[in-house]
Each structure stands twice: as structure tokens, then as C-alpha cells.
Amino acid sequence: MKNLWLLAICLGFWSCKTTQSKMSAVEDQDTAIQRMENATVKKLWLDHIKDETDRKNSSGKAIRPDCMPRFYPHNESMPRKGMVMFFHGFTACPQQYFDIADILSAEGFDVFLPLMPGQGRVESGKKDHLEDLPSKTTGEIYANGSKQHPRYIKFVEQMNAIAAASTGIKALAGLSGGGGLATGAAVMGQTANGNVWSRVLLYAPYYQNPSVNKVLADVVGFFNPGVTTDWGEACRMNRARINGRAGYCSVNVGATQAMVHYGEEAAAAIKQVRIPIQFVVTEMDPTADNQAIFRAFSNANNARVCTYPKGVPHSLINPNKDLIPDDGDPQLAKVRDKNIPSGPPYEWVDALNGDSVRFLTTGEWFPVSGESEIEQKYGNTFPMCNPSKLTTMP
Question: Which CATH superfamily is domain 2-389 in?
Fold first, then answer.
């Protein structure tokens, strides 16, 4: 269905930069995990890995190496300062954060890159194994009275337990669907005595589909949640190359609904959170509804927001122009090359990484300058992320 393919375009979940971590071999993880100083944290992390690999073993579907949960121990040459955890984007993988994980590890932080439930299953031929993704019909309510899928709730509880057992600074970040889960983690982590997290960074959190896409997704998700959208051969070409994309190249509408419904409910409870929350968005994001993000920001107790200019993609920290599909649609710009070149890094990425590291490690808010005139037209008062620091790093 053409409209559903366009929905996939608007969702933008194919974004995943082709990065290679300095911790390049999967077997390095055995050594890294042995360096965990906290026995409780080690057990909880191994439980998370087992949860995902056991599901793989029972279904016979392997997890791509760059999608496996990954731990980066802190630099041994300095005292441990704390821990940072990143939730990747929907249909993507921990691969999205390899670059910034290297930076934070070198700065003295343990870095955790968990795998969101059901993600990263290797395709067979040209078919993604989407069967294990949490999925629901539009409006489905679970036994606990929540619209949030039980597997997402369990995942967040596991990650919060790791933070609760950790010492030092405990920072969390999430992109898109991972931003919705990170919001939920902050809500669930808030108690009368404080929060298990020190601060949270939300990159374009996925709380709601924009306008017409929301209506389309809700209707299809109610009548036929198994309908699958696909973003074409360009994605698979990228995935086939060395260090190429690790995530899915398709998704079913029911899985998308499960993701957005979790974020929607988490955002509605954000007022409970007392710790600092930094929102980072992009103007006129076609994937995450900026009005929903602005409502969450406005309801938060201790939050800041800034936006990058129109044209910076939803994926923000790990954009990849090569993954835009080409099906001959005249409304889409043909931007990919059949050879899928790596290309230079995008100009805002260094600034975003630098400001992200500063916020996660010190709590310093993102610098801003002026306001977004584009977003003001939609009632969103978003200052611009400061362009004067485009080349700075901590």
C-alpha cells in the first residue's frame, strides 16, 4: 500500500549511522563485563543479555553482532565517575551510540548500550524477522490497565534496577522510540526519596505520530496491525556492507503502535519527574510530533529544550542519507548513490556529541541562541541549539 510506504518514510526509523566502535569484536564483551566492579550490576546486565539471546535461541533467529547489548568499561587510568545508559531508536540497534560511548568511556564512565525488546534479528534473504517485536492493536489495554506493552515495562524495570544498583553519576539518554522508553524510565525511577537517575537526555522522543500519520497508523493498527512497511533496497544495500546498518529495514504497524503508545503514556506522566531533562529536537520533524514533545516539555518540572534547524533528520545523533529509499516516487529526492558511499560526518554531529557529553557528565544544559520561527507557527516555543559550537568537543 502506497500510503503505508509513505508512513514508513515519515516515521524515519531507518536512520542509523554506519559507525564502527573501537571495541570492534563481539568477544571483547566477555573481557569488558568481567571488569564490572559491581556484582549486582553484572548480574542484572547478564540477565538482560540472556533475555534477548534466549528469545533468539527459542526462535532460531540470530541477533546481528552490532545489535547485541554492549558494555563499555570506564577508562582504567582514572577513577570511575559513574555510568551512562543509551536507549537506541526504534528498528535500530546499540550501534547508533558506538561513537559517543567511546568518548564517555574515555572520560571515566561505564557505558551501557542495551538492546530494546525484539530488535536486531538477522534477516533471512530479504526478510526481516519482526515476529518478536512487541506489538499491539490501536487502543489495546493490558491487564494492568495500561496501554504500555508488558515487555517494554519489564525492559525499563531492568534498566532502572541497574541504575539503582550503580554508584556515582547515573545518566540516561534515548533517541526516538528509545526516548519514549527513557521518559518512562525517569517516571518509574522517581520516588519520594529521589530518582534512580541523575539526569535524562531525550533526542526527538517518539510520543506521537505527526497529524495525518497518526490517523493512518491508528486506523491500520486497529484493523490490521500485521501490515508491514518497508523502505527499500537502499537500506538492505547499506546493511550488507561491512560496518553497515545493523537494524531492520521494515516494520509492522502493530509494533509501531506498541512503541508510540508506550511513549504517549510516559509523556503524560512526566510531571512526576524531578531530575533535569534535556530535550533535543529538529524543526518540523516528520517522525516524532513536536507538538507532543512541546507539551511534555511544558509539563516537566526541570527541563530545557532546543532544536536543530529544518533539514537535520529525526535520527539526529546518527543520520544516514544513504538509507532514504528510492521507489521512483517523484515527491522524494533521489539522494542515494547505488554504491552507498560512507561520506563525511554531518556538520552538527560533533556539536551534538559535545553538548550531549557535557550534559550527561556535568548536567550543563545545551547552549541556545534565538528561537525557531518555524516551530513558533505551530505554537512550539523552541530556542535554537547554539550554532556557535558546531566544532567544539569537551
Answer: Alpha/Beta hydrolase fold, catalytic domain (3.40.50.1820)
